Fold BioF2-like acetyltransferase domain-containing protein.
Amino acid sequence: MSITITPDLLLKPTRMDDEIFLDPAFRAILARAFRLQAVQVQLTTVEHEWRIPAFLRATWLGNQTLILGAGFDKTGIILNTTPDDYGVMITTLAQELTTTRINTLEIRTAQHIPYLTDTADKVELNLDIQPSVEAIWQKLSSNTRKNIRRPLKMGFTSVVGVNPHLLDEFYQLYRMSLHDLGSLPHPKAFFIELIQQCPQHLAIFVGYIDGIPVVSSVNFTSPTEVYGAWSGIHTDYKKYNVFLAMLWQMVEYCGASGRNTYNLGRSSAGSNPHQFKLKLANRSHKIYYYKIPTPSPSATHAKAQAAASWLIRHTPEMVMDGLSRALLHKFY
């Protein structure tokens, strides 16, 4: 087996280039935002060869963590890996990392690994546009349809596009929402980089009442999916169900643009956002957070084990039982 870890090269992706999550430009933007290094891990065994997109975090104390799925679990997508192979790959990776200076492996994934302990409560909610937008509308509860219509009767309008003006309006609402939640927002420069370097993967939604921006979101787009990444809502307009209206109009946007799925993003299971998104979602799955220590054997331990091995090799068989009782539990 062998493992090689190399920095990302800012080249145009040659595979899966219809997805933002493996785009080197997007990965570089995420890395700068979270103070990580975007890397590629080449893991090779006799039977398999994996190329793993990852991120490396280093502390000033010298500790290093390899992260699969930083920012979004989909940044850890490993091409040509089946669910059955995924657990084998993670086991192999953790074993090989013990030969490096990396202390911890962190994984955010939709793949369940039975022998690992999930450390989060995240759930991803999706709305599959089948058989049609109209059919989905009819399946919604009468109360949900009523709440969607409410802001529309107030003159709610919306625009979807990618330009600096829409970004300004989004960021104003995004920052307001994060302030209300007591959370720190990404700096505006982060989103400016996104629209400058990844415009083909983005759609910015802004909803208005009486010309005032009241709700907005930045979405990732691919030929088959729209992924709701970040959102914001005006504090004074929360009670008018403008967020629900935005979600529904993004469903209509998916249908009109021929996309199959509106991904509503992650939420903590049972939280208010999770319960709210369940009004629309028709499919969900768990996002697992795993953490695996990968300590390297200490030099002292390695020398002691080598000495014990030499002693065993040079000891007559007649005294092996005694040595086993004294040494086996310490070194094997």
